[in-house]
Amino acid sequence: MPKNYYLLILLLFAAFTTHAQKTVDAKGEPVIINRDTLFKFYTGQGLFDAKERAGIVTKRIEALVERIDFNPDSLTLKNDTSVSVISYNSQIILAVNNKDATFSELNRPQLAASYLDILKKKLGNYFTSNNSKQVIINILEAVAVIVLLIALIWALNKGTRWAKLKILRSWESRMDKLAAQGAPVMYAKRLLPLITGLLRIVRFILIIILIYLALPVLFFIFPASKPIAVQLLSYVVNPFKKILLALLHYIPNLLTIAVIYIVTRYIVKLIKFIANEIAQGAITINSFYPEWAMPTYNIIRVLLYAFMFVVIFPYLPGSDSKIFQGVTVFLGILFSLGSSSAIANMVSGIVLTYMRPYKIGDRIKVGEATGDVVEKNLLVTRLRTIKNEDITIPNATILSGHTTNYTTVAKTMGLILNTTVTIGYDVPWQTVHNLLITAAEATDGVSSEPKPFVLQTALNDFNVSYQVNAYTALSNQMAGVYSRLHQNIQDKFNEAGVEIMSPHYTALRDGNHIQIPENYVPEGYTKPGFKVDGE
Predict the structure, then answer these.
(1) Which of 114, 172, 279, 510 is most buried, judged by most C-beta within 10 A?
(2) Residue 131 class from Cβ within 10 Å (0-12 exposed, 13-18 middle, 19+ buried)?
(3) How far from chain centre, in Å, is Cα 75?
(4) DSSP letter string over 157-199?
């Protein structure tokens, strides 16, 4: 049999098979939305036959129209070399291939364009259905929403009034108790209008929120106003969505910040432990005094936290923003200009810490102020005088002036207390020395060793200045020791019948009574008369 005969038979078989297949698929599988057939698929695609393909596309369209933000005009068509794709916001709805076009008089792009036009019209009509039954349902739903809103606002007003009455009763009860205890209640009464005003503001804000949330629900009920509902919801949802996404994206940076903070915190704890051990004397370091331990720890702690902030700064939200950087620079300038004196005092405090001119409990003199050191920090030093007056002195003032410390060597070498008396030339200096030393040795608080000594500091016109010097370890009781020393000097000189006429007394003594207390005047003493020498 000739070859052409076999070829003819094959062609006839192929044509018969194709015609049979078309006859089978001629009925097609419809895509039905809201009981309306949009179009039919006559052939399968990929692993799915025509029926399965129609079912998948139907489900996609149904899910699409149920979305609250669906807009038919956002459907788009993209033609490729072998397929045309209809999508909605990058979500594929259906694809049209070349085989679909064989069941139509249109080519593939034209067929796909007709499908897109059908979807836009039909789905648009889906939302603009004006049948009376649907309109009645929509109106009833809107009325239900309005009634629910009114009920919520009524309940909110009732709850607010109940809370206001509760607050008023509680407030009046508390005012009565305060008044019974004698406490001033006028200030508390002035606060009550502020609290009730805040309650009214909160009520008003909650009503606004309820109304705003009810509006999208109302607009969504009616198809024509659905875009307005979507827009209103976007004003609330989008900010929260951005915040949640920002928090989610910030989690890695937050973990990094947490790790840096935890590491720094434990390093600071370790340094604090070492500083405490040094301060208590458990650990000793050559040329490092125990009182330096805690100030040094504070300095290191500040430096570590400052370094931690520098490392953390790039991970802070908005750190790369020009506004954030501008505000940071502005705050830095304000801090620099407004805290120049504070910075000077802090630097002076650090210098004084390591100079060690005084410590807590020392009796010192700064300028005209004398007292015991009760507090020292980076900014100021506080003294308490013998009159229980607290004097606050900036550290910069102390550093720029001179400071006298009475306690530094009082326990070891002894603090020398000195006072001066003037005695006439008629009294032998040996007698004055003995009387002053005896008075010093009899004073409570004066050390027996080293022994007191006397210095003759001046030969004046009518008298001699004698300075008695006595050692004491009680630097914080200087005023009391001085007082007792002066008392003993008076007693010893009066017992010896020696007058203390300081600073001057007239050279004419004839006819005047001796200047000592009556109980020290010897028995039989008579006031001398005037001596007159004549030729």
Answers:
(1) 279
(2) exposed
(3) 51
(4) HHHHHHHHHHHHHHHHHHHHHHHHTT---HHHHHHHHHHHHHH
Residues β-bridged to residue 371: 364
Q: Is the pTM of this model over 0.85?
A: no
Percent of the chain surpassing pLDDT 70:
81
* CA-to-CA dists, residue 474 to 28, 48, 60, 374, 451, angstroms: 116, 106, 97, 17, 16
Query: In angstroms, rounded to a whole number, what is the distance separating the alpha carbons of residues 481 and 474?
Result: 8
Give dist(CA 75, CA 79) in Å, integer.
14
> Quick check: 522 pLDDT over 50?
yes
CB 42 within 8 A of CB 34: no
Q: What is the pLDDT of residue 225?
A: 72
Instruction: Tell me if 328 sits within 8 A of 366, measured CB to CB.
Output: no
Cβ neighbours, 10 Å, residue 126: 16
Q: Beta-carbon neighbour count of residue 170 at 10 Å?
A: 10
Sheet of 380-384, strand order: 390-394, 380-384, 369-376, 363-366, 403-405
Please report which confidence band the pLDDT of residue 456 belongs to, taking 50, 70 and 90 as the band edges: very high
Cβ–Cβ under 8 Å, residues 293 and 278: yes
- Is the pLDDT higher at 420 or at 176? 420
* Coil vs helix vs strand at 417: strand
Respond yes or no on whether the N-terminal peptide bond of residue 295 is cis (omega within 30° of 0).
Answer: no
